[in-house]
Amino acid sequence: MxxxxxxxxxxxxxxxxxxxxGTVPKSPSYPYVxxxxxxxxxxxxxxxxxxxxxxxxxRATVVGESVQSVRIIAQKVDDAFEGARVVVPGWVTGVLTCxxxxxxxxxxxxxxxxxxxxxxxxxxxxxxxxxxxx
Length: 134
Hints:
Layout: H1 2-11, E1 19-21, E2 32-37, E3 41-45, E4 51-64, H2 67-81, E5 91-93, E6 97-99, E7 106-107, E8 120-132
Parallel strand pairs: 1-2
Antiparallel strand pairs: 2-4, 3-4, 4-8, 5-8, 6-8, 7-8
């Protein structure tokens, strides 16, 4: 339960935009953010092999009808996530930091609107390092 609580705490930082967690419905409301998190994986161990730190990744894929709408929502995501610190019982957490990915805003060629245009998207990835207490 505590790993789920850690992930949900990070996910709850994002508000004021349409967010889909894990999957997108067949007819989404644009613009939106597809938010996914991993199970916090071990990134540091003591010599005794005891886990010292875990890393939670949050991927926020911003999808919109235009490059401008993606930029506006991406800024909201970055404002909510970059440097944020969540308080989670059972965990000592660091701050969320953006992991550069050098991705440009790209068209989603698998989806075509009625007007023949494609939505565009930008994946952003954030990392939180945390240690369990007790």
